[in-house]
Design a protein that fits this description.
11 helices; alpha/beta; two-stranded antiparallel ribbon; 11 strands; magnesium; UDP-N-acetylmuramoyl-L-alanine:D-glutamate ligase
């Protein structure tokens, strides 16, 4: 890592804890509690505001909007579109998690509508989802990706250039790009695949980081590295999914700049 990128990446964590960004989450109902708790542990303020009659005005006071399409019902669909429109009007960063877009065709219609009325700053998905959105073949099982890392960075770059945003593809390795500069994170643990909502929690963390930084590429990289380092630490202590899930939130809370600086395994391109 270059010294400049290290310093900027680490400072995102400090900024989150100083500024306590309000992150509005319209997320799936399976993991809503986990998203709220990990945001609190990270230093942010979660708001799980998704009611159609409230979202437009709530976006105005938030520092970031996290949209997760995992359990999309009709009211949520209307709410995410309205919230995305409000975020564009009020210049609030938006993180889009296109959960199951490769498995459920309806999700693509919603994603297209979000881009029609709003502006997305970060797309964060698993490798299968990102490959699919980039127009490549993808191998998925419901919400889970079965794709390996081959070609993942290229898919991210295609999407980043198409939508002029940051794109992150998560898997055994994580790939983040703005279409020009890229980062590959090699921190990870397979235990993240044994709990529900690891990707959803990560998307929420990306929202907190984006809400505190003008540099969304560095912010997204910082959030993903934070999740992975905390997961590695949690796995050292908890070898089974139930205890790992609890320890993951504990180690997010215990993160420091020094842990990010010493533990990060990042290739910058």
């Amino acid at each position: 890592m270059t010294d400049n990128n290290i310093n900027k990446l680490c400072s995102v964590l400090t900024d989150i804890r100083k500024k306590v960004p309000l992150v509005q989450c319209i997320t799936n109902h399976v993991t809503i509690n986990d998203c709220a708790n990990i945001l609190l542990a990270y230093g942010a303020s979660p708001a799980m505001c998704e009611a159609y009659d409230e979202v437009f005005d709530f976006v105005k006071i938030a520092q970031a909007l996290y949209i997760n399409l995992g359990t999309l019902n009709k009211e949520q669909e209307a709410s995410v579109i309205l919230a995305a429109e409000s975020a564009k009007i009020h210049n609030i960063p938006v993180i889009l998690d296109p959960v199951a877009c490769a498995a459920i065709p309806r999700k693509i219609n919603v994603i297209n509508r979000i881009f029609q009325v709003g502006k997305v700053d970060v797309i964060k998905g698993n490798i299968g989802e990102i490959n699919f959105l980039a127009g490549k073949s993808s191998n998925v099982k419901g919400v889970d990706s079965l794709d390996n890392s081959e070609g993942a960075l290229d898919s991210c770059k295609i999407l980043a250039q198409k939508y002029n945003c940051i794109v992150a593809a998560t898997g055994e390795n994580d790939f983040i790009t703005d279409g020009k500069s890229s980062a590959i994170i090699n921190n990870n643990t397979p235990m993240l695949t044994k709990i529900t909502g690891a990707g959803c929690m990560l998307g929420a963390l990306c929202g907190a980081a984006a809400g505190c930084s003008e540099d969304k590429f560095i912010a997204t990289t910082s959030a993903i590295l934070s999740m992975n380092i905390a997961a590695e630490e949690a796995f050292k202590e908890a070898k089974a999914p139930g205890s790992f899930r609890i320890k993951l939130i504990d180690y997010i809370y215990d993160l420091t700049e020094d842990k990010l600086r010493k533990g990060g395994k990042i290739i910058w391109q």
